[in-house]
Amino acid sequence: MVKLFSVFASAAMAFTAVIFVFAPEVPYSGPNTEILVISKSCAPCVAAIRIVTKLQNEGYDVVIINIKGTPPERALARMFKVKITPTLVVRERDEPPKKVVGLQTEKRYKELISQ
User: pTM of the full predicted structure?
Assistant: First the structure.
C-alpha cells in the first residue's frame, strides 16, 4: 500500500510539473509551494486572499488558484481533490500533501506556509 501511495504521490508531483510547464498562467515556484484554492464568490475565501496575499508580499511560498478559474487551475484543484474552499494544500518534500479546509488566522497560515 505504501509503495502504491508513493507511486501516486510521485505521479501527482509529475502531473503538477507538467501542468506548470505547459500552463504558465498558473503561478508556481516549486514542489514545496503551498497552494490556496479559493472561489471568488466565497466570503471566507476573500478574507483568505487578503491574508495570503500579505504573506506572499512578506516572502512566503504560496500561490492562490481559483477552483473555477482556468483549465490548469481547475485540473490542479481536481488533482488535490479540493471540494470545499478555501483550502490550503500543504506540500512537503517526500510527504503526501495535506489539506487544511476553511479560513485560518494569519498566525495559522504563517505556521503552515513555508517561507
Answer: 0.74
